[in-house]
Amino acid sequence: MKKPAAKRPTSSSPGKVREFPIALLGQKFMGKAHSNAWSQVARFFDLPLEPVMHTVAARDAAELTAFARRWGWRNACADWRQIAQLDEVRLVDIGTPNHLHKEQALCMLQAGKHVACEKPLAATLDEARVMHEAALAARRKGQQTFVWFNYRRVPAIGLAWRLLREGKLGRVRHVRAHYLQEWGGPQTPMSWRFEKKLAGSGAHGDLNAHIVDLARFLVGEEIECVHGAVARTFIQSRAAPAGTKSARKRCDVDDSLLFCASFEGGATASFEASRLAIGHQNDNSIEINAEHGSLRFGFEDMNLLWLADGDGRGKTDGFRRIMCTTAGQHPWVEAWWPSAHLLGYEHGFVNMAADMLRQLAGKKPEIPLPDFEDAYQTQRVLEAALQSARKGASVRLDQVR
Amino acid sequence: MKKPAAKRPTSSSPGKVREFPIALLGQKFMGKAHSNAWSQVARFFDLPLEPVMHTVAARDAAELTAFARRWGWRNACADWRQIAQLDEVRLVDIGTPNHLHKEQALCMLQAGKHVACEKPLAATLDEARVMHEAALAARRKGQQTFVWFNYRRVPAIGLAWRLLREGKLGRVRHVRAHYLQEWGGPQTPMSWRFEKKLAGSGAHGDLNAHIVDLARFLVGEEIECVHGAVARTFIQSRAAPAGTKSARKRCDVDDSLLFCASFEGGATASFEASRLAIGHQNDNSIEINAEHGSLRFGFEDMNLLWLADGDGRGKTDGFRRIMCTTAGQHPWVEAWWPSAHLLGYEHGFVNMAADMLRQLAGKKPEIPLPDFEDAYQTQRVLEAALQSARKGASVRLDQVR
Amino acid sequence: MKKPAAKRPTSSSPGKVREFPIALLGQKFMGKAHSNAWSQVARFFDLPLEPVMHTVAARDAAELTAFARRWGWRNACADWRQIAQLDEVRLVDIGTPNHLHKEQALCMLQAGKHVACEKPLAATLDEARVMHEAALAARRKGQQTFVWFNYRRVPAIGLAWRLLREGKLGRVRHVRAHYLQEWGGPQTPMSWRFEKKLAGSGAHGDLNAHIVDLARFLVGEEIECVHGAVARTFIQSRAAPAGTKSARKRCDVDDSLLFCASFEGGATASFEASRLAIGHQNDNSIEINAEHGSLRFGFEDMNLLWLADGDGRGKTDGFRRIMCTTAGQHPWVEAWWPSAHLLGYEHGFVNMAADMLRQLAGKKPEIPLPDFEDAYQTQRVLEAALQSARKGASVRLDQVR
Amino acid sequence: MKKPAAKRPTSSSPGKVREFPIALLGQKFMGKAHSNAWSQVARFFDLPLEPVMHTVAARDAAELTAFARRWGWRNACADWRQIAQLDEVRLVDIGTPNHLHKEQALCMLQAGKHVACEKPLAATLDEARVMHEAALAARRKGQQTFVWFNYRRVPAIGLAWRLLREGKLGRVRHVRAHYLQEWGGPQTPMSWRFEKKLAGSGAHGDLNAHIVDLARFLVGEEIECVHGAVARTFIQSRAAPAGTKSARKRCDVDDSLLFCASFEGGATASFEASRLAIGHQNDNSIEINAEHGSLRFGFEDMNLLWLADGDGRGKTDGFRRIMCTTAGQHPWVEAWWPSAHLLGYEHGFVNMAADMLRQLAGKKPEIPLPDFEDAYQTQRVLEAALQSARKGASVRLDQVR
Q: Count of A–D CB contacts within 8 Å?
């Protein structure tokens, strides 16, 4: 019997794989998802850098101790600014609420760190622009930025991207995307998510951000024009949160927002986000109709991609149900289980962590990772939709900066 | 052995059921569908009026003789105007191309006939308005008008209408409708459908007409505003029709048109029609999200309605697959076969013929039939969408007449 | 204006198409389905023989008059034996309960008629054998027999048959078939269907008959052995029928019967029929796994066929949803509506009537029609399953005659 | 900034949660799945025992070092028998090939360890019986046994179990289960899986084991009789494994095996396993029809359960699609992500590890864990099916020990 490694059994032998210390800001839902990604990634992927879970920072110190222990962060601190001083930390991962992203990202870029930020990039377009510019400046010094648009790393989306890039499907003509949830009914009490000054917007920034990113990513073009938009706040006040005694609170963000748009190459698109679509729990769905075929994806059946590549005149044309768990279908499949052993929600984060570490080691992954510039473009589209809803008119993207 | 009836075995005994002579204009696709409806309706339904297939009129006399024989029309004539002179004819059924509807309907209303017209009501809003006004005038003389929006008589839509009218689902918040087909690719040669002066518009008038009607019918409200629209002609020229020698022809109608809208009560809506959506053959689909539940229908699975009526917090909430073939589910089900014996496309026409004959006998059917006024409202929405696409701005329906 | 034909507008011109007089026995569910088939067939199909609805026979004379009028039968009679005397009648169509089939078929074959009989061929294997032998004798005199296994004429099944015959899918390895309904719970009162002396068996003869026929038809081989079977009568007594005063009645037929079998070529098969499968209304489903592909069909989505023809290692392999309404897919599609306009339950009967009339005119249809011999083979399989359930042992088909 | 814990940041504070050292035998597919379960379980669940990954044993020492490092096993050894000597190890987890299970389990039970064993319990019924008896003896000394039937811990199965135990669905009448895969075609080279002396059986022991366990578990009764079975070896020889030079090899295990059975309470059942069902990748499916409702599950859509609980006469009866990711639906849901964030294959193992640790701490989980006795009962059913296939006759379970 022998001990495989003196102290840190999960590390690989020194000399081969460089250690790569990471810090995380935030310990809520995204803190958990990112911690899981950093702790799982080296178990399933062979990587050129070994992620070291160096320090986690968050406000609630009591909670934080337990969190750090649970997830294996070596250090914990209640003041995120201290992270900037830690020379050995290479990547700072921001999983805090949207209104903190700008300050934190700027501080860490300033300190010479690589930065990975949760989506949406920022609460407003102005903040996003500043972040994008800071990222450009940092890029010249070799720093990289990432935005956690995790759905790009879902297996079925990886296959869809490959099929579209191969070119056999031809030019895209239509995109139809919606992100529908049902939790936002009147029985749901007030929270920061319904308050504009904290959340920026409602379903729009939360959900349309994902599908606008997915559409731009899959089509491989920018959106040129928003042709019209409607926003609605159906539930205009809510009970105060459980445990608090105050009166009902006013909600000032959208419950839903939908809009029509078009891409540079002429494809039309529709986007809709809602928290009031009963029967849809986490229904992030997109369909693309191209010249020679169509693709359809829905996150509630996230291991499936549907492809129609005939023209309807063949004897056996029709949408095909592809289970995206087979070797060769997408870049991450071999890391996991044998064919047809399904993946779940958190695997997208782990896949993304793997691609980030590879890119940080100089190996650009096959499927592009979103950076601050990319996320800024998505934010411009969201802003154009807000303006279009306000004005009752089309808004060209070249008017939105 | 005895003969059941001297001459016309399909007629019921005189004295009980009045004969009701009908004339048909047109012998193409819709001529066939309407002829089938008039010949099947008395076999499956018990009716207060017995439809008599009196005369069919169409231009191609040679073809017409065979058509009349095949379908049991007692008379045939090549000049549709003669129908106006036939005193005994009570209802004239117009199944001709759109640009003929106005002249034919006006002539027949003038002659005192009830008129049933194929959708869309007319090629332009101006024509539709004139027809609507003529129908109003005729109504004062006791004449009725109908428009063949046959999808209102699909079983699943009948059940959806009932569920919405019962009120348990509450107010509608979102409508999402699309009508997608795939036949319009570049390999399809030129035809009247791609020429504006003959067809009025492309996918918009053909397909959006159906889903705008369905949405108005199910929601039970009028659309108040079109918030933005995009139209596209992707295939700008086509080969001349087979058998002709001319050069390629220019197409000047839309291949697709999508738009956002809102209803009087505040519900948002999106509509999209396309002939270039590979994998969709006749995909007329609508989903409605209301306060307390959602409904989903797609014509490619026309015997099914999907209903979600929990709020997602119950242990067994979710969309339910309802096969709409059970006694009591909708007004037409008992006329056909035992439970779970599916119906098809043409049954909507037969169901509609039954309801028309009942209404003509003074018995208003439970589920409302579309008349010229109703179809004119749909046409106003279509026009508003065209204007919105042209202007790049919202168009309020009260500005469109 | 001109009259298309003096008396019978539905007939084609004499000299071209021979009239072909038909008589029908029965006026219940199957009487209605067959009447519809004979009245619709010449409207949708171009046929070498014109079906003439000559006479219908059934016991209840009052009801019969209305039935004959409604469906256009020229004559009606209460004594089915008189039909044998009608020289002009060429084909006798038997739509009566199972226990009458033998006597009626033998009488009509004796009288020189062609005979079409509802399924199952007979109540017992002994009766079926006698009928089969009578059909063989009559065949030598040029008489034809048919059995209304209508599911063979569902579009998706037509396409499945073609795909299997083309040979690309290779040898069949597995068949999995079930026919599940839900109406047979304890709340359903007594009827002849639950009484052995009237019905022969329960779900087995009613439902397994269909799927055994479909399996034999699609595989193109005979079943060689039944390897084991289980029959169950879960509801052992039922309330007397509504309107009668008697006590509860004992049920002595199976509510469900399932069995394993194998085909001559080695393929394995399972069959299950039940009237107690909640959520399944008319779920006649079959899946076939062959060497190079699989096919799946369910009658509740009867316009769809699912085909998987990769081997799971291709990047886009998977089951494909084929809407079976496209020109060229199956022999009946062009008779009906344009692509993607769905067909329903009764269309299988109309398609079968068309193929019968063609075969009677000497034109063998592409897809074989079941005759008495064919139905006798199905009945042997049903009998083998009953014996296997009784004995608790395998039963080879060569032991069952 | 402070360090959350001196050495082992993932451990909870001493005094509260006892450490619980575990050893693992095996480093292949199941070694990976079990290692992941032990490393993830304390991150997502709050547990009374803290799993310590003490030692992993496997033959290939070179491979083992990397494996241990990757997964965080503190020690590694090439001789599994040494584990028995490690006093501190409390639970031995056996993830080796089937033919090793008996010797390893007996050795570890002898040494006073709790034992968790991969399924199937053993290669033969004789071995399984001996293991069951050893477990009974060990139980008297307080030792527990477990068998990794991981599908019992899939969320949708947890909900199904609860719904069946609540009793509203009534008695079970039918079970229909199949486990179909497609990888076993002739292009797949020889491996131990096709050799009887190594694998025991083919698809039967590998796949039917899972669905027989699931059926017994969900129904909550034992199987009483196997009524007939068919086994087939379609591919009788295969190419030698890549890299070896020998001639083709004979395969002597089943490619598929199907059988009919019945439960003590009278419910009928069918089971089918195949590796030759194209289009099915990992299709472990089960449907249960009970008196008042039906449940349906398929592993390829593992986050969904389908429930039909009407009787088909209600206006909105039908199968309901339940996404099993909502708080309260099953015992493991709160440990993971918010509603509707899907789980994957490996989560069943983590859920099972959590329940084992709770039971080892004396807190019996709501949903029962399979032990050696339970797995022995499953093995008796598999043996009965093999005997039935051989004999061509029913086999009662009371004849199989």
A: 144
